[in-house]
């Protein structure tokens, strides 16, 4: 089987990571995330039709008129429609929407138009942020306990790296960030961690088995041995995500984008962030195998 | 012998599979639109004669009833369509008085043999199925009045401690006025109060027999109070809905003074309505002494008997100071609520009780209610709400010793009332009373087109994975695919048993955990291939492959599970929902990858003298 020299190219990879992180952070600082209706709130318009309309037509009409992030629901009966738009409230929106819908020849009356607040309260936002930090801390402890603290540092840096790059991509291209995308980011954390631990596990196994101290070579072996698995898993996941992206429609679209970026970056970071970072952290065989004790010395004595 | 399972392991796997199948079955039966009638707090269930009246009224209105079910605490009327449901709700609500809560509901139609096993379907989220929509209005005037009452009480306290005599306080709109014996007292009071309350505009006025100070809230202060009230109410409602165990609800502000609460699918909507709309709070007050001046006292009635008691107007603390509350039973089996106060509340309570040992203290139950009347306005019927406040003493007991941070309240009507009161105290009180303005069923927030496309894409994604596994691992791929199917059934069963709510992101989460389940199999199969290459025999390679992949799989899954558990315990709403799906998915995928595929491999090739593996 062909062996790739992954570790030999780590300087190039570190530079790539650093550049991506920088772009992501600058974009997040300058133009923030383009938050969706769930986070910002918007305008709610309730209209009453004479005969029940097709919800998809309503949605398409409004989309064509340039409204964003639209949700259209029946409200009580089939001819009463509730529309939520991500649009700063002004007193004319209701009339504007009604006029647009009337243009299709339907009899539409405006029942009410009001602003709606964010679905995600500040409390939730703060709690979720805290939750993430605690989760990172516990993961670090667990990895330090199961492996060694240098592994823990690598795993956490890789996780933060992945999350920042996914968020950065959403900020850079101003793709809408809503609760569904938040779920995707959480999934990226799960995926990336899974991937990292699998590579780590092989590294640990190889360090314990091998007789050489050449860490880059051991890492290369471990990564090459898990490569077919990594490609198979990322491959199937990407297959599913491509299906979601192409066929899934508007609502799943951004979710799939977040995960596609996440899976790509996550696979990259398991090799080049989580594992390669172990080299500057000076991981040694003795970190995983306790140093030989006196009784071994005793055996060597004449 | 290598690669053989003992019989009990096969039986265990079969048992888990059977349980999984049974509990995932209810998801195949669609829910009916229904109207649920349940008694208002502490009342009686609908009587047989009332039910007959309801049924005949529905028949008169030409609304066909699919079936009627009488539950332990409610009556469920199943209907054919959503429009029948709306009309039926109107008819039933008009017929019954305030003793009953009438709510629209989506009732599950699980066959009874499954229901006997406590099997029920997953709830579909607001995005996929829709649910019930409550529109609540916050009484902004009451928010201001309540704040003024608290301020007036604090002002009186200040004046008393400075020994300035006042005669009367009055609250009207956004103005508090106080009467004094003379202008000097008033001026002194003004300089004293204005230091503590900069939000008021102070004005002197003449009054018969003395001087009057009128204090009016500035516009900005009123805005702040109202903003605070609605935000506080939003938080409280979110807490309450979460306490109810409703997964994936929506609580958001609408317009300047309204709040929307949407609850997905099959829920006990009547209970939800009662708890969401409840405005109950508590006040702790001292009983008045015989020599207390009349303007400082108020006469209140007991809730359970026509007795009355004379109480001080000043409130020691309200339910807002409660940090936690639980329900339990006292020695005699009567319901009680155990209360813990927060720091300030505890200090206030301690100070008040310490200096008043031997006096009586009352616990007052407050509820804001409305009377709806329909009046004709411009030829159209319009509902007018007259808000009123009910105050009743639930207990009056002698203070035996100084009270601290925790104590208990007795004298409640029923265990249900104790449970709801403790829930309300826990989730925080409302800063202003709220009223139901509208109640509707609401359709899915995703268009049918979007839902169809989403589900189609998930199916195609799964098919691709299945095809990939077959191509790459041949016979072992088939085994992995069967395990994948088992995994899907188990996740759905577990989510149904936990009463989790399925949303579109949730479906995507399931697909992701299926991906992780495939990953576990990939790890094992790759390892077996590797072991075969190093020259191990078929049986040894299978054994070593499972053995060596085991630590990788367990480590990777446990770390992810840790993250999911933390997200679950700290996160709320959608984060929590995602965490549930992820945790369940990880557990089932570990089970299927490590046990189910192993069992199948053992059954098919285990122990047989094979030269070559189809992998």
UniProtKB/TrEMBL annotation, chain A:
InterPro entries: SecD/SecF_arch_bac, SecD/SecF_bac, SecD/SecF_CS, SecD_SecF_C, SecD_SecF_C_bact, SecF_bac. Signal peptide: none annotated. Keywords: Cell membrane, Membrane, Protein transport, Translocation, Transmembrane, Transmembrane helix, Transport. GO terms for molecular function: protein-transporting ATPase activity. The chain crosses the membrane at residues 12-30, 128-145, 152-173, 179-200, 231-249, 255-279. Residues 97-282 form the Protein export membrane protein SecD/SecF C-terminal domain. The keyword Ribonucleoprotein does not apply. GO terms for cellular component: plasma membrane. Coiled coil: none annotated. It is found in: Cell membrane. Its main location: membrane. It comes from the Bacteria. GO terms for biological process: intracellular protein transmembrane transport; protein targeting; protein transport by the Sec complex. The keyword Transmembrane applies. It is a multi-pass membrane protein. It holds the Pfam family Sec_GG. Belongs to the SecD/SecF family. SecF subfamily. Forms a complex with SecD. Part of the essential Sec protein translocation apparatus which comprises SecA, SecYEG and auxiliary proteins SecDF-YajC and YidC. Part of the Sec protein translocase complex. Interacts with the SecYEG preprotein conducting channel. SecDF uses the proton motive force (PMF) to complete protein translocation after the ATP-dependent function of SecA. This is Protein-export membrane protein SecF. The gene is secF.
Automatic annotation (TrEMBL), chain B:
GO terms for biological process: intracellular protein transmembrane transport; protein targeting; protein transport by the Sec complex. Residues 437-601 form the Protein export membrane protein SecD/SecF C-terminal domain. SUPFAM superfamilies: Multidrug efflux transporter AcrB transmembrane domain (SSF82866). It is a multi-pass membrane protein. The chain crosses the membrane at residues 454-471, 478-500, 506-528, 549-571, 577-601. InterPro entries: Acrflvin-R, SecD, SecD-TM, SecD/SecF_arch_bac, SecD/SecF_CS, SecD_1st, SecD_SecF_C, SecD_SecF_C_bact. The keyword RNA-binding does not apply. Residues 298-432 form the SecDF P1 head subdomain domain. It comes from the Bacteria. Residues 2-103 form the SecD export protein N-terminal TM domain. GO terms for molecular function: protein-transporting ATPase activity. Belongs to the SecD/SecF family. SecD subfamily. Forms a complex with SecF. Part of the essential Sec protein translocation apparatus which comprises SecA, SecYEG and auxiliary proteins SecDF-YajC and YidC. NCBIfam families: 2A0604s01, secD. Part of the Sec protein translocase complex. Interacts with the SecYEG preprotein conducting channel. SecDF uses the proton motive force (PMF) to complete protein translocation after the ATP-dependent function of SecA. This is Protein translocase subunit SecD. The lineage of its organism: Bacteria, Pseudomonadati, Pseudomonadota, Gammaproteobacteria, Oceanospirillales.
